[in-house]
Specification:
Elements: E1 2-9, H1 18-26, E2 35-40, E3 44-50, E4 63-67, E5 70-81, H2 84-93, H3 103-114, E6 124-132, E7 137-142, E8 151-155, E9 158-162, H4 165-169, E10 177-179, H5 180-187, E11 202-203, E12 208-213, E13 216-221, H6 234-252, E14 259-262, H7 267-281, E15 288-294, H8 297-300, H9 312-322, E16 325-331, H10 333-337, H11 339-349, H12 356-370, E17 375-377, H13 382-386, H14 395-398, H15 404-409, H16 427-433, H17 435-449, H18 458-487, E18 492-494, H19 500-507, H20 511-514, H21 522-527, H22 534-537, H23 550-564, H24 577-585, H25 594-612, E19 616-618
Parallel strand pairs: 10-19, 14-15, 14-17, 15-16, 17-18
Antiparallel strand pairs: 1-3, 1-9, 2-3, 4-5, 5-6, 6-7, 7-12, 8-9, 8-11, 12-13
Helix pairs in contact: 2-3, 6-7, 12-18, 23-24, 23-25
Length: 619
């Protein structure tokens, strides 16, 4: 796993721009703590920050392919291509010779053999940039599901690109300007494909490639979901999912560094642990599992509308069932309220969020995992594929005429909430950015794009829309957060449920089959019914834990009060100052709820971000 960046400019000699390219690479250092390097040509420069996972000695980047003294192509690439061994054999049969055992060289030679078509032959999670000095073209590609990020900024005579916006902003040609569309994206809980928070930056959408030439930038789709009739019966469907998961997990266990399963004790992470234990056990190895909790969380846990029980007891059952090499991570409230942590999470994501303690706990978890493993399997994506979210099963949400999670979010709306985290923002600002209109436009577009089968019922059509919406507008936010916060510690997060083969198969399984026994995730549960302990198998979905310590809310209120005491605080132009003052002193039960807490979280992070990034607002 790595950070990539680069610069193409047809009007100047970039061989003289080493300091700028090194700066662009250096800011991605957390994505690649093992090494940093740049390659410079006349009109292009590529940078790479490496976390070594496969072929530790031979996979150095940027990597060039040569024919004698002639450079044929140069690649900077981040991610993992899981079918690289098969592709390498195809390339060998075509006459290519390899000098390393790395998947990087496979990506490079795949481009030399197939050109832009190589993207459709690679399977995995990746962001790829290849400079072709002969054609003077830059090739960019992003994996099908969008697991790895890739941003670019068009310039008058070329382009700047990188794994994260911070790499582009390290180039003087790109300014951190945020307009109304950027604020909508910042505050939205529905991802707009291809859009960045910063006005002049774009994100290459999942399943897309781009070719940059003297004629400009051409973006095209190389993969998309397709609707086709599902002909497998229920037993065959369950068996197919089991076979797919077995193969996917086996492929994603490939690494030359320590690997673990991030285990919550829920169905998704326990499923991955079970398959990993089976694969590794066949070779006499044990799977390492790592579970996170908060100090005193189990003893003082209070159920709420989303979390019915703490993770620990369920994870312990899985550990015993598979005799895993287990590590418990215990976080303290002090870890979450640390100012350096807040700054780190904002910088990691290049934007503020209302999920302060969730971001902080996830970051600290990943940082602690990195002390034991360089690669971690995460259960992200299973809920979107198998139907695990509660709002997917409630007619008032799926039939609300908007994204189901937005409909549920609106349950918490009141005079001061206005959506998750937006309750302390200025009402005039909220009117300008018009989040209801933004959501309505995104929703219409998603419904128009969703592929459908011939002759499906109205109910199946609606629920296929719901599946597509989650895959294209909800899951990308979770994948981006996982990538940014894990990479902030140089940890590679792998997400087996997001393998495109599994996504393609399950997209076409009818909803009636996905819920054949009247419960959520029926197919996944049936797939591992003979593997998992009963209590884990039937556990109610529980999201990532958030702290229930009132000291955390006290600390947030104290920080907010201190911020409001600064008359020149940048965030004051965006908030309702009087409402913020009330929130900083309130002792009501509502003030200590997670949704009210998010309002303070966003204000604090907004101010920090405006200062640290020197953001120019154009609203």
């Amino acid at each position: 796993m790595c950070g990539i960046t680069g610069w193409v400019d047809y009007s100047r000699d970039l061989a003289l721009a080493r300091p700028t390219l090194e700066s662009m690479t250096r800011v991605l250092g957390n994505r690649g703590p093992d090494s940093e390097a740049v390659w410079l040509g006349r009109h292009a420069g590529l940078g790479h920050a490496r976390t070594a996972v496969i072929d530790l000695a031979g996979g150095l980047q940027p990597m060039a392919a040569r024919d004698g003294d002639q450079v044929q192509a140069v690649v900077t690439y981040g991610g993992e291509v899981y079918n690289f061994a098969e592709v390498r054999e195809q390339l060998r049969e075509a006459g290519h010779r390899f000098r390393t055992a790395s998947d990087t060289e496979v990506v490079l030679r795949a481009y030399l053999e197939w050109g832009a078509e190589c993207a459709s032959r690679l399977e995995g999670m990746f962001a790829i940039a290849i400079w072709d000095p002969l054609s003077e073209e830059l090739f960019l590609a992003r994996d099908r599901i969008g697991i790895k990020p890739l941003f670019y900024a068009p310039l008058p005579d070329g382009v700047v690109f990188g794994s994260e916006p911070k790499a582009l902003l390290a180039n003087p040609a790109v300014r951190p300007v945020v307009d109304r569309q950027g604020l909508r994206e910042l505050m939205s809980t529905a991802k707009a494909p291809g859009v960045s928070v910063f006005r002049d930056l774009r994100e290459l959408p999942p399943g897309h490639l781009a070719v940059v030439s003297r004629r400009g930038i051409r973006v095209q789709r190389y993969w998309q979901l397709r609707a086709k009739r599902h002909t497998d019966d229920l037993p065959t469907t369950i068996a197919t999912v089991r076979d797919l998961l077995g193969d996917i997990v086996q492929r994603e266990l490939t690494a030359d560094v320590p690997l673990c399963s991030a285990l919550s004790g829920g169905l998704d992470s326990s499923t991955l642990t079970a398959f990993a234990a089976g694969t590794l056990g066949a070779h006499g190895d044990r799977v390492r599992t790592i579970t996170t909790t908060f100090d005193g969380y189990g003893d003082n846990f209070r159920p709420d509308d989303t979390r019915g029980a703490p993770d620990g007891p369920f994870a312990a059952q899985v550990v015993r069932a598979f005799d895993t090499d287990h590590v418990d991570i215990v976080l303290k409230t002090a870890d979450l309220i640390d100012p350096d942590t807040r700054l780190t999470t904002v910088r990691a994501q290049d934007m503020p969020t209302p999920y302060g303690d969730m971001d902080a706990s996830l970051f600290h978890t990943f940082r602690r995992i990195k002390q034991h493993s360089t690669v971690a399997l995460l259960g992200e994506g299973a809920d979107e594929l198998f139907g695990g979210y509660v709002w997917m099963h409630q007619p008032e949400f799926i039939g609300a005429g908007t994204f189901p999670w937005i409909a549920r979010e609106q349950l918490h709306d009141g005079s001061r909430t206005a959506g998750l985290g937006r309750g302390l923002l200025d009402q005039g600002l909220l009117g300008k950015i018009d989040m209801p209109g933004h959501y309505a436009a995104l929703y219409r577009q998603a419904c128009e794009e969703a592929p459908h089968q011939e002759g499906e019922s109205a109910e199946e059509r609606l629920l296929r829309d719901v599946c597509y919406q989650h895959l294209t507008h909800w899951l990308p936010m979770l994948l981006d957060r996982d990538d940014r916060l894990s990479m902030a510690s140089g940890l590679e997060a792998r997400v087996p449920f997001c393998d495109h083969r599994l996504v393609e198969y399950l997209y076409n399984v009818p909803w009636s089959m996905k819920t054949f026994d009247g419960s959520e995730k029926s197919i996944l549960r049936s797939t591992v019914a003979d593997k998992l302990p009963h209590d884990v198998l039937w556990r109610r979905k529980s999201p990532w834990p958030v702290t229930q310590d009132p000291a955390y809310t006290h600390a947030l209120q104290k920080d907010l009060a201190a911020l409001l005491a600064e008359p020149d605080a940048p965030v004051r132009q965006l908030i309702d100052v009087e409402a913020a003052r009330l929130a900083s002193t309130s002792t009501s039960d509502e003030a200590y709820g997670w949704h009210s807490r998010m309002n303070i979280e966003l204000v604090l992070q907004l101010d920090l971000w405006l200062r640290d990034y020197d953001v120019e607002l154009a609203v």
